[in-house]
User: What shape does this take?
Amino acid sequence: MTGLIAAATSGAEKRAAFRASLTSEGITRLPGAINPLTAKLIQEIGFEGVYVSGGAFSAGLGLPDIGLTTLTEVTAHSAQIAGVTDLPVLVDADTGFGEPMSAARTVLAFEDAGIAGLHLEDQVNPKRCGHLDGKAIVPTDEMVRRLRAAVTARRDPNFVICARTDAAGISDTTASGKRGIDAAIERAKAYADAGADMIFTEALHTEADFEKFRAAVDIPLLANMTEFGKSQLIPAQTLQNIGYNAVIYPVTTLRLAMGAIEAGLREIHAKGTQEGLVDQMQTRSRLYELLEYERYNEFDSGVFNFTLSRSQ
Assistant: This one.
């Protein structure tokens, strides 16, 4: 019955698998999980990893994505997701929840929670969604300190530390006079030198932008295929052909769910019944299948299988 009440694969095993996947020939696809049940579905369908989006998590709490969630909240939520799947879980850690010391503490908390990796970004606080205008980023040396603190704190060498840069969407020039993608490339190289295992460049626009970045940076790269943003939605196979190692679909499941929920609630409000929506719902039997309901019954029966003798 191993793996029934919790994932059968340990956090260390998942971290090793995630690191290995970043040097494999295929691209690692990580859809966002809005809850543990979604993570179970992601695994069942056959994806290679699970992503926990800071934007999706804060939205689920009724909050905008401006850094209002705490390390404790994000760790608890992510631990619940990691606890039910054998897939590696990558978590959005925003700016590390504070100063470099806080970024170090974040790594320790995430390791203890069974998480496979995180990404830290170079925005200032309060941060905002990476596909909105008006972002501001910290100086490169400040982000380097943030990354070095995280790398130094890491106990498991397989825990993946990904550096996200928002420089491509900032119009200001760097100290070297570079702007846009060129500034992001310059920062990515500095972040790699600081110990980052992977680079995530936010808000690239076209396939050509992704190709330019891949040609300039020689460590694993992560692509963000979020909807309604600045990036063209590029198929995973194309990203793999370009040379990207991982791709996230951060808010897709939340948008699918909320779109269906809103449409359903409006119909119930208008018609007074959900009868016309039933064929769009996940059935009770499918839900129980995903939850492995029968295996829980078998487990319970197997544990509670004793009888009292007459002498007892």
Observations:
- The mean pLDDT is 91.
- Strands lie at 28-31, 50-52, 89-92, 117-121, 160-165, 198-201, 221-224, 246-249.
- The two ends are 30 Å apart (CA to CA).
- The first strand starts at residue 28 and ends at 31.
